[in-house]
């Protein structure tokens, strides 16, 4: 940081915000900033380092500096000495990920320690069983020295024989002898599997300068000595006769803010102390405990460790990103490119502050690239509901892949593209003679097929004032089997949009159907023209006669006319009683397969340059069509 006298005092917002006396929420005072923001900012003269970080935007960018004291925060390059990292040696930018890493959920420890109400044993057990069912093979089960609840849960799993033979559990401990001993007590009785240990004891100690100085009060040498003492104690306890066979893990907490050479030194010390070998590798887990940089910096830090760690073939290089900058997923993905082999995170990103990296997003990001995630996400809603139950916290509706709205489009052009894309997908599957669920996926706006994660297509398209004809027609088709002609889609969308605009809310499929019924089907009985009885006869080839008892504006009459088809005969009949109308568009379709199904007919009629649509439904196509004509005629202006 620069001394205060080197800061200039010239930086002011060019247009100071006015201060509102009202404490009403902003929404009640149109065009104003929230009252809390306005009253909190008093706009003193601000300070900034002279000649350092640019604050004025180019001429094309009208933004002006805010009054917030950004100068208080140091960039990573000033906070951490990164001299050992040679940018020209980085290989991660050109690498690709084509296999899944070893995923390790830490919800039962890191996620749990961040909950308002930590999980009890039944909730923890539900989550543990979910992990097993999803196919996780390494699971952190707790911090047994933290509380009796944590200790008891580990004992519960052991005594209930709940840990499958191919699953390894991880227990977490700080570098304190009494707590390490308690941790070892908790794991008594977990057998190995064919000589492979099924328990990892995970030691952590913070290594970053601020933590060393402020929290632990130790310099580098002191901290190394503390770590060695703890690691040595663990190694001795592991050799005790009744101790289960274990492996070791070390996390230099706040690795991302630690001098790389010190992180390397301390990790290498554990590799040696625990005598790591390929048959019994050590896990070095490099956390971004609090995110402080862009993901490329984290990737450089990981690649540095990957290249320089001793006995690299005896080390599993693990990462543990948090999400303070919202880039936990990006950090984990770049870390994989940089040499990471194992990722710790939580389902849907629960965890301290803004959370741990989200394993659902990471795994399904890989899946969307054609890589097998090695974890089963085929029922994402059950996974989400279980996590919500255990954490007593909701998952955001827009959460990638698993949120309630993750596959839903409200906006018209997206709906149109999805609807066309689904139709194209179905056609392509038929062409390839493949089931739709196996055919290659290329539907606009949907990175994966929602059906792959157990979602139906029903919630893909939802209608509000942002929606267009395509989406509205899609819903009427999906829920009511209607196949509206394009021009009718346009006609109906106008009405639906007006309703959505007026009410400012979503229109449900049932409401759309009711609007459709009222507007296009019901006028057959509700208008100036009603038919009480009618019949058609084919009087000669290409000649049809239409006979009807009808009422015109309440006056009963009967009439007869001919035409080259039944509908032409009907319009001739109507013209004969003074109701002129020309049919300009017609279509019909069966609603279901089979002889007993309903047919729907759509008819557009025109009079004096004005058009209107009507629809009819009946088991007889002819009756449906006649009804559609009458409905359309009744909708013409009188
Ligand atoms: C990034 C992470 O997620 S780390 C995991 C964090 N998880 C948790 O903290 C949840 C469980 N923790 C706990 O239940 C408690 O903190 C306990 C049981 C571990 C310790 O409790 P207490 O003895 O009461 O200590 P307290 O929590 O007040 O303070 C932590 C102490 O541990 C020290 N400490 C912090 N990290 C470590 C570490 N990795 N190894 C050794 N000591 C450590 C601190 O310097 C402090 O020491 P001091 O009391 O001499 O100043
Ligand atoms: C792995 C441990 C120490 C952790 O949770 C963190 O650093 O965030
Ligand atoms: Mg953590």
TrEMBL record:
MF-aspect GO terms: 2-isopropylmalate synthase activity; acetyl-CoA C-acetyltransferase activity; magnesium ion binding
Enzyme class: transferase
Composition skew (Basic and acidic residues), residue ranges: 1-12
EC number in record: 2.3.3.13
UniProt entry tagged with the keyword Acyltransferase: yes
Entry keyword annotation includes Magnesium: yes
Enzymatic reactions: 3-methyl-2-oxobutanoate + acetyl-CoA + H2O = (2S)-2-isopropylmalate + CoA + H(+)
Coiled-coil annotated residue ranges, if any: none
Intracellular or extracellular location(s): Cytoplasm
GO cellular component, one term: cytoplasm
Pathway: Amino-acid biosynthesis; L-leucine biosynthesis; L-leucine from 3-methyl-2-oxobutanoate: step 1/4
Region (Regulatory domain): 523-638
Region (Disordered): 1-30, 44-70
Record keywords: Acyltransferase, Amino-acid biosynthesis, Branched-chain amino acid biosynthesis, Cytoplasm, Leucine biosynthesis, Magnesium, Metal-binding, Transferase
Principal place of residence: cytoplasm
Binding site for Mg(2+): 110, 320, 322, 356
Entry cofactors: Mg(2+)
Residue ranges constituting the Pyruvate carboxyltransferase domain according to the UniProt record: 101-381
Any one of the GO BP annotations: L-leucine biosynthetic process
Family assignment from sequence similarity: Belongs to the alpha-IPM synthase/homocitrate synthase family. LeuA type 2 subfamily.
Subunit (UniProt): Homodimer.
Role description: Catalyzes the condensation of the acetyl group of acetyl-CoA with 3-methyl-2-oxobutanoate (2-ketoisovalerate) to form 3-carboxy-3-hydroxy-4-methylpentanoate (2-isopropylmalate).
Protein name in UniProt: 2-isopropylmalate synthase
Taxonomic source organism: Frankia canadensis
Organism classification: Bacteria, Bacillati, Actinomycetota, Actinomycetes, Frankiales
């Amino acid at each position: 940081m620069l001394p205060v006298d080197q800061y200039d005092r010239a930086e002011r917002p060019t247009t100071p915000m006015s201060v509102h006396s009202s404490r009403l929420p902003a929404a009640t005072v149109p065009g104003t900033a929230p009252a809390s923001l306005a009253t909190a900012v008093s706009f003193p003269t601000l300070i900034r380092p002279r000649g350092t970080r640019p604050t004025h935007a180019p001429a094309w960018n009208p933004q002006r500096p805010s009054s917030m004291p950004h100068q208080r925060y140091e960039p990573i390059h000033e906070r951490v000495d990164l001299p050992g990292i040679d940018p020209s040696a980085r290989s991660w930018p050109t690498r690709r990920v084509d296999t899944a890493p070893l995923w390790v959920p830490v919800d039962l420890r890191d996620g749990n320690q961040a909950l308002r109400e930590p999980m009890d044993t039944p909730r923890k057990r539900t989550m543990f069983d979910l992990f097993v069912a999803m196919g996780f093979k390494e699971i952190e089960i707790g911090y047994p020295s933290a509380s009796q609840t944590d200790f008891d849960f580990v004992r519960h799993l052991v005594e209930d024989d709940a840990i499958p033979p191919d699953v390894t559990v991880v227990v977490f401990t700080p570098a304190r002898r009494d707590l390490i001993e308690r941790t070892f007590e908790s794991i008594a009785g977990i057998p190995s599997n064919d000589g492979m240990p099924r328990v990892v004891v995970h030691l952590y100690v913070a290594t970053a300068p601020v933590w060393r100085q402020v929290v632990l009060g130790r310099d580098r040498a002191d901290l190394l000595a503390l770590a060695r003492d703890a690691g040595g104690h663990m190694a001795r306890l592991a050799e005790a006769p009744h101790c289960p066979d274990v492996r070791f893990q070390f996390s230099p907490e706040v690795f991302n803010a630690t001098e790389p050479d010190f992180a390397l030194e301390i990790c290498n010390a554990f590799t040696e102390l625990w005598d790591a070998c390929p048959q019994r590798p050590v896990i070095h887990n490099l956390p971004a405990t609090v995110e402080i940089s862009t993901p490329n910096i984290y990737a450089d830090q990981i690649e540095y460790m990957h290249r320089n760690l001793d006995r690299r073939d005896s080390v599993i290089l693990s990462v543990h990103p948090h999400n303070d900058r919202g880039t936990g997923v990006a950090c984990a993905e770049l870390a994989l490119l940089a040499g990471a082999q194992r990722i710790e995170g939580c389902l849907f990103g629960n965890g301290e502050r803004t959370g741990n990296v989200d394993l659902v997003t990471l795994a399904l990001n890989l899946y969307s690239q054609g890589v097998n995630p090695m974890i089963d996400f085929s029922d994402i809603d059950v996974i989400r509901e279980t996590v919500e139950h255990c954490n007593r916290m909701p998952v955001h509706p827009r959460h990638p892949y698993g949120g309630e709205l993750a596959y839903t489009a409200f906006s018209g052009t997206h709906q149109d593209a999805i609807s066309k894309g689904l139709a194209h997908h179905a056609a392509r599957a038929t062409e390839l003679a493949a089931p739709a669920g196996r055919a290659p996926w290329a539907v606009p706006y949907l990175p994966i097929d929602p059906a792959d994660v157990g979602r139906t297509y029903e919630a893909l398209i939802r209608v509000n004032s942002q929606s267009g004809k395509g989406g509205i027609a899609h819903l009427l088709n999906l829920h009511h089997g209607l196949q509206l002609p394009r021009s009718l889609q346009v006609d109906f969308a106008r009405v639906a949009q007006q309703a959505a605009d007026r009410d400012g809310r979503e229109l449900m499929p049932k409401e759309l159907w009711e609007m459709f019924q009222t507007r296009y089907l019901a006028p057959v009985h509700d208008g100036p023209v009603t038919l009480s009885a009618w019949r058609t006869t084919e009087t000669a080839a290409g000649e049809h006669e239409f006979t009807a008892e009808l009422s015109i504006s309440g006056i009963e009459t009967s009439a007869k006319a001919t035409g080259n088809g039944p509908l032409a005969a009907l319009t001739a009949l109507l013209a004969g009683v003074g109701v002129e109308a020309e049919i300009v568009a017609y279509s019909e379709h069966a609603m279901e397969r089979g002889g007993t199904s309903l047919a729907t007919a759509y008819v557009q009629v025109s009079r004096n340059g004005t058009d209107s649509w009507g629809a009819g439904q009946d088991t007889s196509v002819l009756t449906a069509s006649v009804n559609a004509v009458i409905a359309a005629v009744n909708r013409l202006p009188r």
